[in-house]
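Design a sequence for this backbone.
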């Protein structure tokens, strides 16, 4: 026959193992969320850099086109 102490020990052990498993799973979920959010923020910032660079190139191209369209001075 199992003593009351041993039953309580088994209950505490099972509860501790279950809690550790659930905490581990929750930590993995949180870790995945942090990773995914970080990736999305990085992608958003990269998109901003690419748009800024495209805007600069467009302004440069426009300035070149305008300078090419100017009539040349005749001497």
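Sequence:
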């Amino acid at each position: 026959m199992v003593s009351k102490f041993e039953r309580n020990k088994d209950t505490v052990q099972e509860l501790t193992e279950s809690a550790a498993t659930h905490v581990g799973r929750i930590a993995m979920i949180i870790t995945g969320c942090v990773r995914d959010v970080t990736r999305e923020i990085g992608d958003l910032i990269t998109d901003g850099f690419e748009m800024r660079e495209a805007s600069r190139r467009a302004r440069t191209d426009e300035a070149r086109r305008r300078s090419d369209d100017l009539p040349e001075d005749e001497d």
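The first helix runs from residue 4 to 69.
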